[in-house]
TrEMBL record:
Complex and partners: Homotetramer. Interacts with both DnaA and DnaN, acting as a bridge between these two proteins.
InterPro entries given in the database record: YabA (IPR010377)
Keyword Nucleotide-binding: no
Compartments, as annotated in UniProt: Cytoplasm, Nucleoid
Gene it is expressed from: yabA
Major localisation: cytoplasm
Recorded coiled-coil stretches: 3-58
Source organism of this protein record: Ligilactobacillus pabuli
Family to which the UniProt record says this protein belongs: Belongs to the YabA family.
Record protein name field: Replication initiation control protein YabA
Length: 114
């Protein structure tokens, strides 16, 4: 092997090392991005589980009207028959379109009592 071949081989090794460094950097960037996304999804998943528990608790409370006064039970019955029981925009007594839920009605029925 003469000096020229040796020099060419060293130069090729240097180019390959540069390519490898670039590839490693790109892989590290991808890995960092994946780790960040995973952390975001874990937090979102935790929040969704908490929200699901809240909704399940609310559904259990809704299906168990034992704690409701007689007047609230009457409002609940009207609501379940498809009528508004809230007074938002004078909606009381009007038909709920497609029996869509109304948070204002649910607040009147199941909201804090005091």
């Amino acid at each position: 092997m003469d000096k020229r071949e040796l020099y060419d081989n060293i130069e090729q090794l240097g180019e390959k090392a540069d390519q490898l460094r670039l590839m490693i950097g790109n892989t590290q960037d991808s890995l960092t991005s994946l780790v960040e996304r995973n952390a975001e999804l874990e937090i979102e998943n935790q929040h969704l589980r908490e929200r699901l528990r809240e909704l399940e608790d609310k559904a259990l409370a809704k299906n168990n009207p034992a704690g409701l006064s007689k007047s609230r039970q009457n409002l609940e019955k009207l609501y379940e028959e498809g009528f508004h029981v809230c007074n938002v925009d004078n909606m009381y007594g009007s038909r709920r379109i497609n029996d869509e839920p109304c948070v204002f009605c649910e607040d009147v029925i199941y909201g804090e009592r005091g």
